[in-house]
Each structure stands twice: as C-alpha cells, then as structure tokens.
Design goal:
alpha/beta, 5-stranded parallel beta sheet, 9% strand, globular
Length: 264
C-alpha cells in the first residue's frame, strides 16, 4: 500500500487517541496535524510511517511529548476548559494515562505500547497500574445510558455500577433520554449513535448539552464514520464490541476533563 494511503487509513484512529489524550477535538487534531507536518519536513520520519499504526503513533508520541513537556498550557490549549485540563494533567502522571489509552482504547499490546512510547514493557505495565489507581480515585457520578440493544445496555449498567457510579436512567430512544433528563441531569452520558425508533444518539446528546455541559462517550460499531475531521465530532468514542477496560478508561478520561470546567 502506498505510504499516503497507509497513513490515511490509520488517521481516524490516531485522531480518536489524540482527542482522548488531550480531552479536546481541536487540540487533538492540532497534534495530529503537527505530526504530519513534522513527517513532511523530516524524510527519515516520513519513511518510518510506512509500517502501519505503530510507527504512526510513535511519531505522534514524539511530537506530543515534546510539546507537552516544553509548552505552557496556554500554548497548547485554546480555552479555559482546555487550559485547566492541561494544568491538571501535569499533576497526575500523563504518561500513565497515555499507556492506559494505548492498551485499552487503541487495543495495542503492552509490547506495542512500549515500542510507541520507547519504554520497556515492564514500565508500561507499571504506568497502566498507576492509571487504574487514579481511575479508582475518581469521584462517583450519575450516568445516563442511551442504548437500544437491551443486552448491551445491561452490560453497561453492570460495568458502570461496578466501578462505583450510579445509573440515573437508561433510554432506547431520543424521547426516552429527554424524559430521564427531565427528572435528573446525569453527570456522564454513554450513548449509542443509532437508536431503536430511528432517532439519533447524536441528537439526544445535543438535547442534553443544550441544557448543561456534560461529559459524553459515544459507543458505535463504526467510529471511523465520525472521525473525518470535517465537522465538530465526539471527543470520546468506544468501538463495539467493546472491552470493559476500554469503557472504564474512557469514563475516567471523560470525567477527568469534565471535572476541570471552570465553576460558574
């Protein structure tokens, strides 16, 4: 496969990772663009990208690590929310979150994550353990599950309850989601894209976000359809079928960035 096609095929997933890592579509996409620009300016780096996802993520890691370590939060972030998130990241071992996202959200093995981050596999295992400890210290919140497949909805209920969160309601349609929110505003939303009556999970979430800014995780079988870079897109995406660790990592990340919003 030509280099350009190889890189393009993996870009949607790199965008997903970058957005989850930074907590922002704009910031994540900016780091992806910076990675591609660096590759265009460096023939050796460009040539290294021909081996699939691992070298592409490794190139991104170099750009992100350099900018993250050398730049002030205000240089990387564009708003109060992102500045707060970047400042907080600096205090809670960002490398451990990076290792966790690589091995859960992006489904790399420990050895592959070590290759991407240029570390030993044992170091990655330690970082992942640290990230899980941080997850366990997250404040519990109430969760709305918007999902039209009963078995998946029950699986998500068990998962969310098992890590200490409350289920404030479940919904299989946009209308049901509105009814739940009328009774109680959730602290987090897990939403499918296609719902039972043909309504859209995107529209259901828009209804909620029009009332309050709540962290949202979309769960879909086709994440690449939402990661084109052509319009505002979800920051947090989990692919069906999902693993418990993947959802758990996404919840932790979404709550972490959601908790850094300035107080009104």
């Amino acid at each position: 496969m030509p280099l350009g096609q190889d890189v393009a095929a993996n870009l949607p997933f790199l965008r997903r990772y970058a957005r989850a890592l930074t907590g922002s579509q704009a910031t994540g996409d900016a780091f992806v663009r910076a990675t591609l620009e660096a590759a265009l300016a460096d023939e050796e780096l460009k040539a290294s990208l021909g081996g699939g996802r691992i070298p592409l993520y490794a190139a991104f890691n170099k750009v992100w690590s350099s900018a993250y370590m050398d730049a002030d939060a205000g240089d990387i972030a564009s708003g109060e929310h992102e500045i707060g998130a970047q400042a907080k990241l600096g205090a809670i071992t960002p490398l451990s979150r990076q290792a966790l996202l690589l091995t859960t959200l992006e489904d790399f093995s420990t050895a592959q994550a070590a290759q991407i981050m240029q570390m030993e596999a044992s170091e990655i295992e330690t970082l992942v353990a640290e990230a899980i400890s941080e997850i366990d210290r997250e404040q519990a919140t109430s969760v709305l599950i918007i999902e039209d497949e009963p078995l998946i909805s029950m699986q998500l209920e068990d998962l969310v309850s098992g890590i200490g969160h409350e289920i404030c309601g479940t919904a299989a349609t946009r209308t049901q989601a509105q009814e739940v929110v009328e009774k109680k505003m959730p602290g987090l939303v897990l939403a499918d894209i296609q719902l039972a009556d043909g309504s859209s999970g995107l529209d259901a979430v828009d209804d909620i976000l029009a009332i309050a800014k709540v962290p949202v995780i979309f769960i879909t079988a086709y994440p690449e359809r939402l990661l084109t870079g052509d319009r505002p897109e979800p920051t947090y995406l989990v692919t069906k079928p999902f693993q418990e660790q993947t959802v758990r990592a996404a919840i932790s990340q979404a709550l972490f960035f959601g908790s850094t919003r300035p107080l009104d």
